[in-house]
């Protein structure tokens, strides 16, 4: 269903369009293999020692610019591969971490990778690695590794029983997805962090919600998975980003007010469902966060299978099976 | 997490095992292509006129036994295909329906296809076909076409606030999945039926629930998709079955009682969550219906990401993207 608004002359995106805005890496498709084959011809698979499974995809642009050290094998055909294979010792977890940290440090010095910023602060895990393996969060983008976020929809009902959803606008100072609308609470899950702990931390840092209350009342509702080729709003156009978003719901009383705390949020709005849907259709949400709201509407029966020809396609794509390990 | 019960000496399946019990058709996997390639080498893709997309997969056993008419082209390589291509006129929707109905009638006469029964009663749609195209529900199994079901979890809370779930046992007289446990309400969606109408009908027919109440109070919560290679309990061992299950929740008061109506249910049980989970782990549920309960537990926060290493893999596989059209 496309959201239309004749008064505004706005004809928005269908819900499948909203999904494709984020989940836009080609799928395996026997009756139309060309889009995936073309994409893979310029994509480098990233391997760690002693493991046949790829952990991420790099673009040719990244591979060309990267100041590779002898710890990495760059194999250009027939399948393009970057293999971490530490020369400075055995293929131990420690040697892998050292090799990766050295490379990231060199890459940062080149000044060719704005994604890396001036310094790394947070560590992210290589998900599903057979040993603990973590490095600079910002370098995950370059290697196209799976990242984990935690996203919560905070909602209430007004005196007439109508649902209202807390919708922050991202700060106009943030370098990525500047000024777009977002989920009530959203943030990354650190390397050594439990998902619920990350949610509790972000809820306090970004929205001023009480930690004990969130821990007690937030409800885990699943996880979304998608594979995004970044657009210019991300600041890293063309980079490959497979993502997991753990999804939580939190119903609050009408007197609970979310407030910006750490400067990442410009302001919080309390919107009715129609306003949220219209704003999504106008592409004014951060693309991956729009998916969390679509899933919310589907789980709450506000998008019904009878009304939506793309219902099954949408629900499947919200839970894409990624071509990388995703286990804890 | 495997459910263990030391008192009983029962060590059950993990939740990923429960998913794999139903979603067991191989996935596309670049680092291990062999299982899918082997399977496809003995699988025939079914095409309808003027459409490059396959609509179903037939087994070699079905293709060998079928009394093909001149309306079908059987192409054995390099990609095995069965192409509906009506000779009795143009490739009109009517010619397709006639060709298919004739074939099914001949196939039934051979007596080689117990799946077809003695006669067809219900029609199912070929999902996503560019024109209305429907035929005998029972023949869908032979062509490996996508079927649509509607499944509802009916639950209540007792005086202590603990959740109880209505769990029917399938009749001991039913020929398939005999005596296994099932979802509170479950049934197929007919060719010309809206999903909610099918739910309302099945709720009355199988559980004696009031139609107006179900229409008003049942909540659509998404759709599960999986690709099953049938086991012997289905009565059609080895057949290929891609399925969609539209999922609904219905919370009822403690005094609502579900009762068998049409003979498909042996009896209804009102179980606590622990009993449901233990019974699932013991493989005593119909495999696809166990997935509906897993999804219920995930959406209700009763399986949390911190507790379950396979959380993301499970959620993705509950929403498999099928290699066939799934649009309305």
TrEMBL record, chains A, B:
<dbReference type="InterPro" id="IPR000086">
    <property type="entry name" value="NUDIX_hydrolase_dom"/>
</dbReference>
<keyword id="KW-0808">Transferase</keyword>
<dbReference type="Pfam" id="PF00293">
    <property type="entry name" value="NUDIX"/>
</dbReference>
<dbReference type="GO" id="GO:0044715">
    <property type="term" value="F:8-oxo-dGDP phosphatase activity"/>
</dbReference>
<keyword id="KW-0418">Kinase</keyword>
<keyword id="KW-0378">Hydrolase</keyword>
<dbReference type="InterPro" id="IPR015797">
    <property type="entry name" value="NUDIX_hydrolase-like_dom_sf"/>
</dbReference>
<protein>
    <submittedName>
        <fullName>Putative thiamin pyrophosphokinase</fullName>
    </submittedName>
</protein>
<dbReference type="InterPro" id="IPR020084">
    <property type="entry name" value="NUDIX_hydrolase_CS"/>
</dbReference>
<dbReference type="GO" id="GO:0016301">
    <property type="term" value="F:kinase activity"/>
</dbReference>
<feature type="domain" description="Nudix hydrolase">
    <location>
        <begin position="145"/>
        <end position="295"/>
    </location>
</feature>
